[in-house]
Specification:
This protein has helices at residues 4-14, 23-32, 38-47. The protein has three helices and no strands.
């Protein structure tokens, strides 16, 4: 799971606007993926039941 291609694929399934899934976003997620709790947070964001406003997590 922890590779940029998979991160991109998963994000494009849940983002309302796939254009928001940028290389920069993927790079930032991948860079922090090994930090404690990162996988749990990423899973929470991806599995959120409200499939809207996920873009608010972009700084």
């Amino acid at each position: 799971m922890c590779n940029p291609v998979n991160i991109s694929r998963i994000l494009k399934k849940v983002y309302l606007d796939c254009i928001a899934v940028t290389d920069c976003l993927i790079k930032e997620i991948y860079r922090h993926f090994c930090e404690r709790g990162a996988v749990d947070l990423f899973t929470y964001i991806v599995k959120t039941s409200q499939r809207e406003k996920v873009d608010i997590f972009i700084p």
